[in-house]
Amino acid sequence: MDRNERHSLHNRVVPQDVKSPFCAVNNISPLLVHAHSYSTIVPTVKFNLTMAGGGVPPPVRTLASAAAVILGGMLTLSLASSASIRALKAVTEAKRKKFALPCGVCKGKGFYICKLCKGNSTIEWSPLYDPVFINPCVCPTCEGNRVQRCLNCLGKGYY
After folding, report:
1. What is the CATH number of the domain that holds 106?
2. By the 8 A CB rule, do 148 and 117 touch?
3. Which of 27, 51, 116, 155 could share a disulfide with 110, CB 3.0–4.6 Å?
4. Number of domains comprising the chain
């Protein structure tokens, strides 16, 4: 490239009636073109930001693919192990339930009437030592459901 070609590439006349987001001449942003003049000499600068592989350098691409393989393997291993553990728990629980005796406290139901509110779903309570008013509050043990889970069998109904 000789000196005249470099000079002609450096300063180009850009028409004002360009309506695309980038000018047709070397992808110049329209912000560089002055709207008050008919034509302006705008210095053109061209950057080569793309690489041979679509813009991502090869070491970064290799690192990203290795990380994706490792994370995918960990996720697959986690899902497979949790599914197998759930299946084993279900099988052992079914065997245990088959030969287990019913709970003597809840008579095999897994629940019994709340011992705090006695099935009323509210309790008379006040935070003061000598209360003037005693307000009914929702039972904190059964949360208003009137029954609580058996603490002996943990709600399973068998030992």
Report:
1. 2.10.230
2. no
3. 155
4. 2
pLDDT, tens only, 84-137: 999 999 999 999 888 889 998 999 899 999 998 998 989 988 777 887 878 889
Indicate whether 90 belongs to any domain.
Answer: no
pTM for this entry: 0.43
DSSP-assigned beta bridge partners for residue 14: 40
CA distance 155 to 78: 29
Contacts from 6-14 at CB under 8 Å and sequence distance 24+? 9/44, 10/43, 10/44, 11/41, 11/42, 11/43, 11/44, 12/41, 12/42, 12/44, 13/39, 13/40, 13/41, 14/39, 14/40, 14/42
82 assigned to some structural domain: no
